[in-house]
Amino acid sequence: MRRQLAAFALAFLAALPALAQDLAITAGDSVQTVLVAQKGKRVTVRLAGGQELTGTVREATAKLVVLGGLTGREFFDAAIPLEKIEAVLVRTKQ
Q1: 0.90 cut: is pTM over it?
Q2: CB of 45 within 8 A of CB of 68?
Q3: pLDDT tens digits, residue range 22-55?
Q4: CB atoms < 10 A from the CB of 65, how many?
Q5: How far is CA 33 from CA 24, 44, 72, in A?
Q6: Dihedral pair phi/psi, residue 11, rounded to 5°
Q7: According to a count of CB atoms within 10 Å of the terminal CB, is the N or C end of the chain lower?
Q8: For residue 34, with 0-12 CB atoms within 10 Å meaning exposed, 13-18 middle and 19 or more buried, which class applies?
Q9: 39 CB-near residues (< 8 Å, 6+ apart)
């Protein structure tokens, strides 16, 4: 039993770096392409007024991004105009 538990713990710790990935961009990227690459993952967007919204990227189009399961407002989704987004924050470390 101890060996199984130790093997499980070792496998879990080895998998941790795979859970968080570095944010990589290219010269042609935009806010939209960064958000599309994060589809299904949790991100924080900083808006022009300084407000931050954290949620799961559901969809990103040329004009809007939809964040679902907003932190602090779990029963709400938000449709945010891309031109109002100043930064996209992605968690890269556990």
Answers
A1: no
A2: no
A3: 888 889 999 999 999 999 999 999 999 999 999 9
A4: 28
A5: 11, 15, 26
A6: -65, -40
A7: N
A8: buried
A9: 57, 58, 59, 60
